[in-house]
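User: quick one, sequence for these tokens?
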């Protein structure tokens, strides 16, 4: 991508991401069910362990760390976010939705296990997420936080979040939308779970109301910027680099940020949102280098 890249010199972000990804992968593996029909468990495992950057759980971990909490205090909450994210990818890829053959560089779940098992595997991952949150809440001092986290995650995944955004996205195919309409779809379909990742991590770390407001603004900005970059990558990158079919938005005649703003205009908007996000952190009163670095990684990524 032709974006201005600024280096993060004071933090080994790549090492941090690698370490946290390994932590999340191990925790996800340990959370998977060991009983129940083998077919659906295999499909769950296939999609969950197919790879991915684990950005959403890492965001939750990073927010908690910024607020002074260790990874052991929030790891299951972080995993619940990834369970919801993976469920959404399985369902998005189905023939009735985006009809995709490739995800994370591998054949999509329904191509391997069939549509019916893929639907049920997605359902199982979603319900497992809330089981994990409930389990988190059974430990001393966490019940109220678990209720708040469950509500936040439910909103992000529901009709005012991902599901609603997916409906609007489907209805928009073949139509010309205004920029505000595209922004609404982005906030719901992509931004809602990214924002929930930040807020759930903050709730687990006992964030105050002022901190929640600031982190919410930060998350909203990087969520929209992330979607803009995703739209740009769909146009400018290859299927091999993305791990999913490139050019899919154009093939399905989906309205995107580059379609409305042009590639350069879309890049400029993503950069402006990135700067707004990190400026918001100035008032947090915490060491914010990690959150700044993650925002940079989300917005200036190449795949």
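Assistant:
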């Amino acid at each position: 991508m032709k974006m201005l890249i600024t280096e993060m010199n004071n933090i080994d972000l790549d090492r941090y991401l690698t370490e946290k990804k390994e932590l999340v992968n191990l925790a996800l593996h340990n959370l998977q069910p060991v009983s129940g029909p083998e077919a659906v468990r295999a499909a769950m495992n296939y999609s969950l362990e197919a790879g991915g950057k684990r950005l959403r759980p890492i965001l939750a971990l990073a927010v908690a760390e910024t607020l002074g909490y260790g990874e052991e205090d929030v790891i299951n909450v972080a995993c619940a976010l990834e369970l919801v994210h993976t469920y959404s990818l399985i369902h998005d890829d189905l023939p009735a939705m985006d009809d995709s053959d490739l995800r994370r560089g591998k054949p999509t779940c329904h191509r391997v296990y069939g549509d019916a098992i893929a639907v049920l595997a997605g359902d199982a991952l979603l319900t497992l997420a809330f089981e994990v949150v409930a389990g988190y809440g059974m430990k001393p001092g966490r019940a109220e936080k678990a209720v708040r986290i469950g509500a936040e995650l439910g909103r992000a995944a529901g009709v005012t979040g991902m599901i609603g955004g997916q409906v609007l996205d489907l209805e928009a195919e073949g139509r010309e939308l205004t920029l505000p309409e595209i922004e609404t779809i982005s906030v719901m379909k992509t931004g809602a779970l990214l924002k929930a990742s930040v807020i759930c991590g903050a709730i687990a770390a006992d964030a105050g109301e002022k901190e929640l407001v600031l982190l919410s603004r930060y998350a909203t900005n990087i969520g929209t910027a992330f979607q803009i970059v995703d739209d740009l990558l769909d146009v400018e990158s290859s299927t091999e680099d993305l791990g999913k079919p490139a050019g899919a938005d154009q093939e399905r005649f989906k309205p995107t940020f580059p379609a409305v703003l042009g590639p350069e205009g879309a890049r400029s908007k993503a950069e402006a949102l990135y700067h707004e996000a990190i400026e918001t952190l100035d008032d947090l009163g915490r060491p914010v280098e990690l959150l700044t670095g993650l925002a940079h990684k989300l917005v200036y990524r190449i795949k």
